[in-house]
Amino acid sequence: MGISISVTLAGLSRLYPDGLRGILETARIAEEVGIGQIAMTDHVVIGNRTDAYPYGDFPFPNEEPWPEPLTVLAAIAGATRRLRLATGILIAPLRPAALLAKTLATLDEMSAGRVDIGVGTGWQSEEYDAVGIPFRGRASRMDDTLRACRALWTQAPASFESDTVTFENLWSFPRPIQSGGIPLWLGLALTERNLACFKEFDAGWMPMTSDPSGLEEGIQTLRNARSEANLDPDTLRVRANAPVVSDQKGRPDLERTLDGLAELAEIGVTQAAFALPRFVHRPADIPAFLERLGAHAC
């Protein structure tokens, strides 16, 4: 079984010192060499409590630019023709449901159906405070937001009622043009509550772990959940960060990391994600890095 390649854009201040328009050239090269997907990360704002980051040390300074991801993906859509456009993750509860539904549907229409949306709830309360949305209850708000988007994409007029999102008799066009709607991915732990969301939304998984044993266990858990929900377990989508292998000096070894893709594919990972700043330290090195990834793209 093959595995496709996704490249996550982050660390932009170092990689694009002359301005973020350089992202467009990166996307064009990625498409030319056969990489399947570009993914954008998301922060609306950054607070000063980055020590609250739950996954270790926060890897970027407070001054790091975090461009609005759907805006960047729209620009990439205009510069490419085949490259899929993803988020990893979009903090969905920070955006009003009706506006998010319209933005995503428009992007899918304008890109000829190339959108993959990975969502999560984020980890810093300052972002929620800044847009006037309660941090508490964000998981339920995300679920309501996704359900409301689905209603607006499939009903006309659309009505929806929940604790956090309610509307009645609304029309929202354009709609996504992909058959079955925009593919949805969840960056969530596999708790009992979250497994219900994976089943409800027929969602792919974006795990935080890149450890093959943890991935294999999680994939089997999701396959079982899909079977329980009468969803085909063989169509499970998993976008996982490629386990980074370091050389003797502690630097990422791209060749040895690429050697591990076969194991990821064997356990059921469908997309291997590579964070650009993890492997590239100078703008001039971006093309060669992408070309090497492209040689392993299926």
Name its key features.
eight-stranded parallel sheet; single chain; 298 residues; TIM Barrel; alpha/beta
Write the layout of secondary structure elements.
Blueprint: E1 4-9, H1 12-15, H2 22-32, E2 37-40, H3 69-79, E3 84-91, H4 97-110, E4 115-120, H5 125-130, H6 138-154, E5 158-161, E6 166-170, E7 184-186, H7 192-201, E8 204-205, H8 212-228, E9 239-241, H9 254-259, H10 261-267, E10 271-275, H11 276-279, H12 286-294
Parallel strand pairs: 1-2, 1-10, 2-3, 3-4, 4-7, 7-8, 9-10
Antiparallel strand pairs: 5-6
Helix pairs in contact: 2-3, 3-4, 4-6
Describe this structure in words.
This protein is of the alpha/beta class. The chain has a single domain (4-294), classed as TIM Barrel. It contains 12 helices and 10 strands. It has helices at 12-15, 22-32, 69-79, 97-110, 125-130, 138-154, 192-201, 212-228, 254-259, 261-267, 276-279, 286-294; strands spanning 4-9, 37-40, 84-91, 115-120, 158-161, 166-170, 184-186, 204-205, 239-241, 271-275. It has an 8-stranded parallel sheet. It has a two-stranded antiparallel ribbon with strand order 5-6. α7 (192-201) links the parallel β7 (184-186) and β8. α2 (22-32) packs across α3, α3 (69-79) runs parallel beside α4 and α4 crosses α6. The chain is globular, with a radius of gyration of 19 Å. The N and C termini lie close together (10 Å). The mean pLDDT is 95.
